[in-house]
């Protein structure tokens, strides 16, 4: 599984990620959501470079122009709630894509241990399609793995791009270990943080992306 770390080099992407992390900026939920969308638009552009292209011929007022454009059929899948602003950002670029939504959450037991539970998945067939599966945070990697395996019950995709804005080193290692043999998979991240706490929170991270985007939950 190839890993694309988009934040390794200086770019406007890192400014948007810095604002996501900044506690003083996070109080503006609208700006938080918009920054997630802008980051996802950058992801969409970078992912599009990996897609198969066909020449498109365009009649202009003065002549004929040609341009290679992506021709793959795309399904954008997001993990609720934090994946929703990413979904909007990706969909604004892949505007002909189909959509899938997956509801997954941590179910805690004793000693801060938890399992990932999946409540619902709404998804079209993914047979021979390019799937972009997104979640704002990649902590342990268990949610993305479960979501990926759930999507595979809806068909066999040609390609799957896993996308997360901030990942932990442990989460990246987990996906490499458990999904690394799946050659259709690639992972796209904006930043990789060193620490994962005993409660599986990413440090420095940014907090709870779903709460910051949409408000506290019970």
Number of domains: 1
Give me the Rg, rounded: 18 Å
What structural class do you assign from the helix and strand content?
alpha/beta
Q: Compute the number of strand runs.
A: 12
The 3D shape can be described as globular
Structural write-up:
The chain has helices spanning 12-21, 23-26, 29-48, 83-93, 142-151, 169-179, 209-214; strands at 2-5, 53-60, 63-70, 74-80, 98-108, 114-122, 130-134, 137-138, 159-168, 185-193, 195-196, 202-203. It is α/β, with parallel strands linked by helices. It has a single domain (2-51, 71-214), classed as Rossmann fold. Strands 1, 4, 5, 6, 7, 8, 9 and 10 form an eight-stranded mixed beta sheet that branches. Strands 2-3 form a two-stranded antiparallel sheet. The protein is globular, with a radius of gyration of 18 Å.
Write the topology of this structure.
Layout: E1 2-5, H1 12-21, H2 23-26, H3 29-48, E2 53-60, E3 63-70, E4 74-80, H4 83-93, E5 98-108, E6 114-122, E7 130-134, E8 137-138, H5 142-151, E9 159-168, H6 169-179, E10 185-193, E11 195-196, E12 202-203, H7 209-214
Parallel strand pairs: 1-10, 4-5, 4-7, 7-9, 8-9, 9-10
Antiparallel strand pairs: 2-3, 5-6, 11-12
Helix pairs in contact: 1-3, 3-4
